[in-house]
TrEMBL record, chain A:
This is Tryptophan synthase alpha chain. It catalyses: (1S,2R)-1-C-(indol-3-yl)glycerol 3-phosphate + L-serine = D-glyceraldehyde 3-phosphate + L-tryptophan + H2O. Its EC number is 4.2.1.20. Pathway: Amino-acid biosynthesis; L-tryptophan biosynthesis; L-tryptophan from chorismate: step 5/5. The active site is at 49 (proton acceptor), 60 (proton acceptor). It comes from the Bacteria. One of its GO terms (molecular function) is tryptophan synthase activity. Signal peptide: none annotated. The keyword Lyase applies. The gene is trpA. The keyword Amino-acid biosynthesis applies. Transmembrane segments: none annotated. Keywords: Amino-acid biosynthesis, Aromatic amino acid biosynthesis, Lyase, Tryptophan biosynthesis. Belongs to the TrpA family.
UniProtKB/TrEMBL annotation, chain B:
InterPro entries: Trp_synth_beta, Trp_synth_beta/beta-like, TrpB-like_PALP, TrpB-like_PALP_sf. Keywords: Amino-acid biosynthesis, Aromatic amino acid biosynthesis, Lyase, Pyridoxal phosphate, Tryptophan biosynthesis. It catalyses: (1S,2R)-1-C-(indol-3-yl)glycerol 3-phosphate + L-serine = D-glyceraldehyde 3-phosphate + L-tryptophan + H2O. The keyword Ligase does not apply. The gene is trpB. GO terms for cellular component: cytoplasm. Its cofactor is pyridoxal 5'-phosphate. PANTHER family: TRYPTOPHAN SYNTHASE, TRYPTOPHAN SYNTHASE-RELATED. Gene3D superfamilies: 3.40.50.1100. One of its GO terms (molecular function) is tryptophan synthase activity. This is Tryptophan synthase beta chain. Pathway: Amino-acid biosynthesis; L-tryptophan biosynthesis; L-tryptophan from chorismate: step 5/5. The lineage of its organism: Bacteria, Bacillati, Actinomycetota, Actinomycetes, Micromonosporales. HAMAP family: Trp_synth_beta (MF_00133). Its EC number is 4.2.1.20.
Length: 267, 412
């Protein structure tokens, strides 16, 4: 049984999309990131995506790169990320973890799965791990009952979509466009097509990420997807603010706008 | 190299998914998989296509000026107590072995119908080579280069621009080669439809490590035959420097099946592997995933990439191609670190004994030969023959070397 599936079911029952908000662990500090994620939950974000900062984040655009650099420069470690996950899970909000593969491999795949489970995490989004390379993670996630979210992209062939989705548990991450994370002026035309391609082969909920930054965009994406994943726009609230308090204020405002958006669907 | 030589199978490794034992593979965003599959297919069919191989062979001969010479360096040899044969890749067009790789990949780019190439570069050598091939093939070319490196290597930035390339300074992370690679990957994800990532070394996700090896393996194919012609026997050892590892793989490959030929890869030991300021991924790193492949990387306890250091910008990379990781694990090749100081001493020795200014990268291989020569002589009970890959020329390093030896006039 999927841990995050319950949250998707609840949103679906309410006739809305699920809102997933992403924040790098340890940005701007360990305590600051806990405050930021808590503020997001309080303002209506359904699921927190905790990104473990990595020195070489090739799927991330400039905003999350910069936040990751700040977190790493502040000395954040994988163990800190697990502590943050535990703190946010304690608020009752489901926590999904996003991480590039090397920090997990270095920690030990089974050990990480064990500790993520103990911290109350639901599972992992793995942006640079494809199922073909994931044997160890498939075994560890089964052993600890963790969700696993692989990515599908507009360039994925039908065969790859089916294979990838077949290895997912919890939800599928559809990358809305060919590119890296970062808010865009317009939502992607490729995303609805990709979501329906996933639906043809699976009943799993589909979350759409990349490029969403406003309540209106959240409403548009939530109109065809089960989940709306927002990262850079939220991170920017903290990154662009002169201090954490004003950052948290901006974060609450945008979170509330996005939460309103996923309840105001253009369907 | 003849077209027939290229038809020979590239060896039992990697497997179809690009694994060299536990190394290699693909650790990339799903968005890139389709492009990697396309590239894999194009490369395999191209290598099986006689017309492609003939065109590549003609370009190597008529444009790149290969086969490069195998030159017996007698005065340098006398200092070592070994017979040293230099594979003169420094005499190739653009001054290094890298021209072989860029010509092969440019041909593939055209074959795939793509109009734009992107490349990463550290010191600018691969960037210049990529810009050269792009000019020859009328392709748009964007080169990503760490901001720190654009300042250190302003002359190469100018070269790339003269050749018509756009140079983009990368201001993220440590602002060096690894960050330039990250930025190239990001560009590729966004523009994969019309763009080929012309990667500069035998690293990255499958099929790049094998594909690059196929394009540079002529170095070893030529050297093996030249050595037989010159000495009547195979060499006792082959030595090359290893950063990402393309020149070393290029010269090793032909000898992998010759059990009596010892293969030595010399990594950049920087200020010494124990100081932490080095770029020796195999001798001073650990297994990890970087830039799409599993290999040896320089990383901290949490798997964060650690900055490398070397006096040689071309070796200053915190990873290494996965085939080298595998050759190390199987024991087929031996990897040893060479410090900045050892490399510079060998640099000077070659200048003074042979009138050849080597690249500082290649000087690591020369220094390695100095180290192994007496051991080999003792082991064999005779003067050993060592083929050293002189992978590039040192013109680009005049400023660094001049500074190192303190021979620049003050006002310069």
């Amino acid at each position: 049984m999927s841990r995050i599936g319950i949250a998707f079911d609840k949103a679906r029952a309410e006739g809305r999309a699920l809102l997933v908000g992403c924040m790098p662990a340890g940005f701007p500090t360990v305590e600051g990131s806990i405050a930021a994620m808590t503020a997001m939950v309080e303002a209506g974000v359904d699921v927190i995506e905790v990104e473990i900062p990595y020195s070489d984040p090739v799927m991330d655009g400039p905003v999350i790169q910069k936040a990751s650099d700040i977190a790493l420069a502040g000395g954040v470690r994988t163990a800190d990320a697990l502590r943050i996950i535990e703190a946010i899970a304690a608020t009752g909000a489901p926590v999904v973890t996003m991480t590039y593969w090397n920090p997990i491999e270095r920690y030990g795949v089974d050990a990480f799965a064990r500790d993520l489970d103990a911290a109350g995490g639901t599972g992992l989004i793995t942006p640079d791990l494809i199922p073909e390379e994931a044997d160890e993670w498939l075994a560890a996630s089964d052993a600890y009952g963790l969700d696993r979210t692989f990515l599908v992209a507009p360039s994925s062939t039908d065969a790859r979509v089916a294979m990838t989705v077949g290895h997912c548990r919890g939800f599928v991450y559809a990358t809305a466009l060919m590119g890296v994370t970062g808010a865009r002026a317009q939502t992607s035309a490729a995303a609805p097509v990709l979501v329906s391609r996933v639906r043809e082969v699976s009943d799993l909920p589909v979350g759409v990420g990349l490029g969403v930054g406003t309540g209106a965009q959240a409403g548009t994406v939530g109109g065809y997807a089960d989940g709306v994943i927002v990262g850079s726009a939220l991170v920017r609230c903290v990154l662009d603010s002169p201090d954490l308090d004003s950052g948290l204020g901006a974060l609450r405002t945008l979170s509330a706008e996005l939460a309103e958006g996923v309840r105001n669907l253009s369907r | 190299m003849s077209a027939d030589a290229m038809a020979a199978p590239a060896g039992p490794f990697p497997d179809a998914a690009g694994h060299y034992g536990r190394f290699g593979g693909r650790f990339v965003p799903e968005a890139l998989v389709a492009a990697l599959d396309e590239l894999d297919g194009a490369w395999r069919t191209a290598m099986a296509d006689e017309a492609f191989r003939a065109e590549f062979a003609a370009l190597l001969r008529d444009y790149a000026a290969t086969p490069s010479l195998l030159y017996e360096a007698r005065r340098f040899s006398a200092k070592l107590g070994a017979r040293v044969l230099l594979k003169r890749e420094d005499l190739n067009h653009t001054g290094a072995h890298k021209v072989r790789n860029v010509l092969g990949q440019a041909l593939l780019t055209r074959r795939m119908g793509k109009r734009r190439v992107i490349a990463e570069t550290g010191a600018g050598q691969h960037g210049v080579a990529a810009a050269t091939a792009a000019a020859l093939f009328d392709l748009d070319c964007v080169v990503y280069m760490g901001e720190v490196d654009t300042q250190r290597q302003a002359l190469n930035v100018a070269r790339m621009r003269m050749l018509g390339a756009t140079v983009v300074p990368v201001t993220t992370g440590s602002r060096t080669l690894k960050d330039a690679m990250n930025e190239a990957m990001r560009d590729w994800v966004a523009n994969v439809d019309d763009t080929h990532y012309l990667i500069g070394t035998a690293a990255g996700p499958h099929p790049f490590p094998s594909l690059v090896r196929d394009f540079v393996r002529g170095i070893g194919d030529e050297a093996r035959q030249q050595c037989l012609d010159l000495t009547g026997a195979l060499p006792d050892a082959v030595a090359a420097c290893v950063g990402g590892g393309s020149n070393a793989l290029g010269i090793f490959h032909a000898f992998v099946g010759d059990p009596d030929v010892r293969l030595y890869g010399f990594e950049a030991g920087g200020e010494g592997v124990t100081t932490g300021r080095h770029a020796a991924s195999i001798t001073g790193g650990s297994t990890g995933v970087l830039h799409g492949t599993r290999t040896y990387v320089l990383q901290d306890e949490d798997g964060q990439t650690v900055e490398s250091h070397s006096i040689s910008a071309g070796l200053d990379y915190p990873g290494v191609g996965p085939e080298h990781a595998w050759l190390h694990d199987t024991g087929r090749a031996t990897y040893l670190p060479v410090t900045d100081d050892e490399a510079m001493a060998a640099f000077q020795l070659l200048c003074r004994t042979e009138g050849i200014i080597p690249a500082i990268e290649s000087s690591h291989a020369l220094a390695g030969a100095l180290t192994i020569a007496p051991k080999l002589a003792a082991e064999l009970g005779r003067e050993p023959t060592i083929v050293v890959n002189l992978s590039g020329r040192g013109d680009k390093d005049v400023h660094t070397a001049g500074g190192y030896f303190g021979i620049l006039d003050k006002e310069q």
